[in-house]
Amino acid sequence: MPTSNVSSGEFSREATQSASGIVELLDVMWEQARESTTTAPASTSQLRLMYLVDLDEGIRMRTLCKRLAAAPPSVSRLCDRLQAIGFLQRLPCPDSGREVVLRLTTEGKAHLRRIREERENMLHQAINALPRTDRRALARGLAALRTRLAVNTDEDSRPGVVSAA
């Protein structure tokens, strides 16, 4: 907890370091959840792609490349693998014959649902062990952080990238 002698910048730096540490721990937990819930494993990169497609059904390949900050050939290979295991569909873009849109299949959505359920169970156990006041503060803080990270600007369409304006 911050004290009256701790500057706002120091508290922000401390909060940033804590959040970064949690992200690293969650990465390990997510990998464990991914491995324990599937017989057709999707890599971490493939799961990131699936999350973005799930958030924006019918996303154009070009937009997906921007959001992943990846080259089109790399994203295309990820899509090839997901399509081969039955998790992803590529469809012609309705308003541009040169573009492709992406959708998760029923199997792909079910796969994500299983992983999310496993992750939520892991998090629920950890959060439930916290004192009630800490759970409330965590819920408020995470809601505010999620809102801030979800902001997309016209200049940069990657999730979490916020303009300095």
Describe what this molecule looks like in 3D.
A hairpin with a 2-residue loop joins strand 2 and strand 3 (96-104). A three-stranded antiparallel sheet has the order 1-3-2. The longest helix has 29 residues, at 8-36. The protein is globular, with a radius of gyration of 19 Å. With 165 residues, it is mainly alpha-helical. 62% of the residues lie in helices and 10% in strands. It is built from six helices and three strands, in the order ααβααββαα. It has helices at residues 8-36, 44-55, 61-68, 72-84, 106-128, 132-149; strands spanning 59-60, 88-93, 96-104.
Describe how the helices and strands are arranged:
Layout: H1 8-36, H2 44-55, E1 59-60, H3 61-68, H4 72-84, E2 88-93, E3 96-104, H5 106-128, H6 132-149
Antiparallel strand pairs: 1-3, 2-3
Distance between the termini: 30 Å
Trace the largest sheet across and list its strands.
1-3-2
Low-confidence parts lasting 5 or more residues at pLDDT below 50?
Answer: 161-165
Strands, total number: 3
Kindly name the structural category. mainly alpha
Q: Count of DSSP helices?
A: 6
> What is the alpha-carbon Rg in Å?
19 Å
Q: Helical residue percent?
A: 55-70%
Main beta sheet: 3 strands, antiparallel
Q: Strand-residue fraction?
A: 5-15%
Give the SSE order as H and E letters. HHEHHEEHH
Briefly say what this structure is.
By secondary structure, this protein is mainly alpha-helical. The protein has six helices and three strands; from the N terminus they run ααβααββαα.
Based on the model shown, name its key terms.
single chain; 3-stranded antiparallel β-sheet; 6 helices
